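User: Teach me something about this protein's shape.
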Amino acid sequence: MSGHSKWHNIQRRKGKQDAVRGQLFTKLSRDVYLAAKEGGGNPETNFRLKVAIERAKQSNLPAENISRTIAKATGTLEGVTYEEIQYEGYGPQGVAILLDIVTDNRNRTAADIRHIFKKRGGNLGESGAVAWMFTRRGQITVDKANVGDSEEFMLTVIEAGADDVEETEDEFLITTSVELFRPVRQTLESMNIAYEDAELTYVPSTTVELSDEAKDEVFDLIEALEEHDDVQTVYSNVAFSEDDEDE
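Assistant: First, the predicted structure itself:
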């Protein structure tokens, strides 16, 4: 796995269940907030909001929380104002780290993130330091159990505009451009094929291989960053495997 996505990892880890669940709800709510603030409160005309709501529902975020968050974002209910920013930095071994941040206090968050990097052998960089190493892409994960004819499925998805379909033992990982993410997703829906996850993410242009010891150092930094409430998603250019994530 080339990137390191919050939405995949936080759901796979066990332990500290109550804390993780509360933290996940916070991040999902902020995702809904930003989507509604950017494109309005109607998911039928705001695709980003539709995806955010679906992800929130999949993680059992209460419907009343979703509605209240949308109301705050659209100004019909008073609440805290959040902004979306991106931080860049370097981890141990000089690996590239890209962060999606949602905060109501930019200065506080910057100080916190800088401290996390420094404490774990990395450093927070300037804008543009590592972003050039990543490309914005759409990724859709489909469980192979939901697919009948694999060859026909892959051909249909490619014809719909997917750039690549990676097949593993249990699933298909579909990669698209940002522009064709929605059409490919709609193609799956028209085929009545359920997907496990669909998101716009950042994919590194190249990945770096590390020793197990070095990988543990990077993973420690990533976990600490993910545990911060203002960090929505962490991306890196380390070639993590599924085994690494499950340890």
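Now, about its shape. Residues 10-16 have pLDDT under 50 and may be disordered. The longest strand covers residues 134-143. If you'd like, I can walk through any region in more detail.
User: That's plenty for now, thanks!
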